[in-house]
Amino acid sequence: MGLGTALPTIVADFRAPQWYSWPFTVFLASSAVGTVIGGRLSDIRGAVLPLLVALPSFAVGLVIAAVAPGMAVLLLARVVQGLSGGVLIVSLYVMIARVYPERHRPAAFGALSAAWVVPALVGPLIAGLLTEHASWRWVFGGLAPLVCLGAALLVPTLRRFSAPGADRAGSRPGLPVAAAGAAAGVVALNWAAQQVSFLSLVVVVAGLVVLVPSLLHLLPRGTLRARPGLPVMVLARGLLAGLFFTAQAFVPLSLAVVHGFSPSAAGVPLTVGSVGWSVGAFWQSRQCLLRREQIVAAGFVLVGVGVFALVWALPVWGVPWLVFGGWFVAGMGMGISVATTAVAVLSLSPEADRGFNSSALQISDMLGQALLVGAGGVVVSALAGDGAPTRGVLPLDLMVLVAVLSAAVMLLRAGRVKPV
């Protein structure tokens, strides 16, 4: 979230506007590898070790970003952060499944989202103020000590949990290789989409050849066909995250370039959206009558309402203040759907597969973001003109709106079919 606020200044300092979407893309691609590693370790050794390793590693990535002399080193730092973040989130999911009975997991995931409230309130604002009055480097470096403190505070609690037996996890050979292949495929597709040459066509073909088989190995069978039950929940998570963050990625840029907002003010919608996220997560924890597919579909519709607000807020003729209310509603949709997909996946997973299925959920989330945010950057860059770098944002938001509503229809149809 701090990166989203500071990124316009970062790319300006490095004179690399063509790399605007890449700090998001490489983070998410490397997170795919991290989630597989975290899931496999959690299934075999339990969630304690991955949690204790991931946080210090993330702090290292923050320090590298803080001292980065150019975009290449910053992207390397985002790779380190992505690997660590992927391990971390899957380990948290597995720990929730171990600690809480099924009936309490919606509330547990609601609490996990609520833990974002204070950082969401102050994070983008502080990032904007640091960028505006000090340096964007403090957005990364200032967080590293806090991450290390968080790791230290976890130690007494995690020591109470013993590691499970190594024979409880099923044999799943080749998962890290498949995750690396998926990440490489995403990066290749994003690079090729920004080039116009015969070489880029070759890279597209090679990227697809690597990406598709990797996804089939990493995701539950039937995910790409939206099979009811676990597969459709995993697919919905990737579509939801990809579409939401594609729209959000260009909100600070549009507010700053088109409407003259300061970096701190341009980051406020991200804060508002995160508060809505927590509200939505709390709401879903109270729902026991609706089917999970219906709840996720409702979340998609709310994201669509937020994107519709962007259509009327971000263009030069728009009313920029609409973005604040609209993105609160979109955040509610994310809170509802993200927590609900996590609860559904854990409830449909046997204990030995919780790590694998949680990592599949996160891979769908992260690769959905990487592919769609990267594609969004290509659309905006392709339609940009001299003096109008955000001209492509409106067409992009319209495409996102259509996709969000189509996904809601897909979920409602899947909810009428009994899972196999």
Any overview of this molecule?
The chain is an all-alpha fold and 420 residues long. The protein has one domain (2-415): MFS general substrate transporter like domains (Growth Hormone, Chain: A, Up-down Bundle), CATH 1.20.1250. The chain is 76% helix and 0% strand. The chain is built from 18 helices and no strands. The longest helix is centred in the last third of the chain and has 30 residues, at 354-383. It is globular, with a radius of gyration of 20 Å. The chain starts with a helix and ends in a 5-residue tail after the last helix.
Summarize the structure.
The chain is an all-alpha fold. The chain contains 18 helices and no strands.
- At CATH level 2, the architecture is Up-down Bundle
Q: What is the class in the CATH system?
A: Mainly Alpha
Mean pLDDT reading = 85
Along the chain, the helix and strand elements come as HHHHHHHHHHHHHHHHHH
Total beta-strand segments:
0
Low-pLDDT ranges: none
Q: Estimate percent helicity.
A: over 70%
Instruction: Return Rg in Å.
Output: 20 Å
Number of helices: 18
The quaternary state of the protein chains shown equals single chain
Helix/strand/pairing class, anyone? mainly alpha
State the CATH topology.
Growth Hormone, Chain: A
Give the termini distance in whole angstroms: 39 Å
Indicate how many domains the architecture comprises: 1
- The portion of residues forming beta strands comes to under 5%
**Largest sheet properties:** none
CATH superfamily: MFS general substrate transporter like domains
Overall 3D shape: globular
